[in-house]
Design goal:
Blueprint: H1 2-13, H2 17-24, H3 28-36, H4 43-53, H5 57-61, E1 66-68, H6 78-81, E2 87-92, H7 95-100, E3 105-111, E4 115-123, E5 131-139, E6 143-148
Parallel strand pairs: 1-5
Antiparallel strand pairs: 2-3, 2-6, 3-4, 4-5
Helix pairs in contact: 2-3
Length: 153
């Protein structure tokens, strides 16, 4: 849900509601209303939010995309950036990811300073044999480790 993303992104970036409101030339109450689901950002404010949080507008708006974020800390990313395009098993703080990944393998689609975008397969809870591929945007600081997996040719 958008409201959950807005809270996670704000906290990850280390902003209070007031600080974010000041950046966007809004009131703190407006930010609170967004985060409570009572209203949503206008298109122009959504564009500004995406820029502030270093994500695409598509990522902000896509309800199928879940964002896993930690509060602001520094991390060395050169190792994670080398994973782009590889299939890995991740050790991360996202309990939901760990429970729902069908075979624990994830394909690393993109790595930026802030995020690692992965695709993984899980079984659908309402269907016996069906699987679905999910894409998740995970805060790089939530990654504790990984193992590169060889894919069968």
């Amino acid at each position: 849900m958008l409201k959950d993303k807005l809270i996670a992104l704000r906290k990850k970036s280390g902003y209070s509601q007031q600080e974010l409101a000041d950046l966007l030339s809004l009131t703190r109450q407006t930010i609170s209303n967004w985060e409570n689901g009572q209203s949503a950002p206008t298109f122009d404010k959504a564009i500004e939010l995406a820029a502030i949080y270093h994500i695409s507008l598509d990522d902000l708006a896509d309800n199928r995309l879940e964002i896993i974020a930690k509060e602001k800390t520094k991390k060395d990313l050169h190792v994670l950036q080398a994973l782009q395009g590889k299939t890995v098993i991740l050790d991360c703080e996202d309990f939901d990811y760990m429970l729902n990944s069908y075979n624990e393998k994830a394909k690393v689609l993109e790595v930026t300073e802030e995020w690692i975008r992965v695709a993984y397969t899980r079984g659908r809870s309402n269907a016996f044999f069906k699987k679905e591929t999910l894409i998740k945007l995970i805060d790089t600081r939530a990654i504790h480790g990984f193992m590169i997996v060889e894919e069968a040719a």
